[in-house]
């Protein structure tokens, strides 16, 4: 287990990842590895940051996850992260095998490690077991309703399972939770949720044309854009003209789908605990 400066570095890296600042998170993790080069948790977090820096960094992410598993074969988040990377690199069979292992092992451990409910639910979703994923992720939220990533995962599972109205409702709830969690956390959560949704819609063209899926994607995109716009405004140097009143912070976009929300449905992410 990480201690002292390494634990602090991991904490800072997690906060940066939550804010979508993966390159800066990677710098923190590289410093932590310099202090403790055989720490599986640091390699797992490093894999997550690299995974989110674009397709060109996927080989490095794969290597980081494999190093984590070499140091700790029971590192479930590393195994799930490696599964995601392998799928994106065009190795679905290997990815599915790892998902099966996560589900099997997670079921034995998640009564003692409650965060594994999210992990198992995500892997069920990736394997196309949507009803199982919905059941698992609902149980995860019952145990701790503060998990924003789990709510987005549940929304995506509901969408894929055909419960579109409930899916959009969960997407809306997830956005509300993320907004209340602060702008930095909002950006990271929404970025992952949007990436997961768009990937699923690419894999299922028929689903991409449903009103609920379109409404959920628009909701995530518009709120994410507003969050980035707000951050740019608050970080902008103050104007030298003191007689000019400061502009008010932009309000988050109104949800344009009130009517769609009734007819349409629901709306979620890749567990890795962002890790």
Report on the architecture of this protein.
The chain is mainly alpha-helical. It has a domain at about 115-230 and about 255-275: Serine Threonine Protein Phosphatase 5, Tetratricopeptide repeat. The protein has 14 helices and no strands. It has helices at about 5-20, 20-35, 40-50, 60-70, 75-90, 90-110, 115-125, 130-145, 150-160, 165-180, 185-205, 205-210, 210-235, 260-265. α3 runs antiparallel to α4, α6 (about 90-110) runs antiparallel to α7 and α9 packs parallel to α11. The longest helix is centred in the C-terminal third of the chain and has 25 residues, at about 210-235.
For this structure, the quaternary state is: single chain
Order of helices and strands: HHHHHHHHHHHHHH
Tell me how many strands there are: 0
CATH fold category name of the domain at 114-232 and 257-275: Serine Threonine Protein Phosphatase 5, Tetratricopeptide repeat
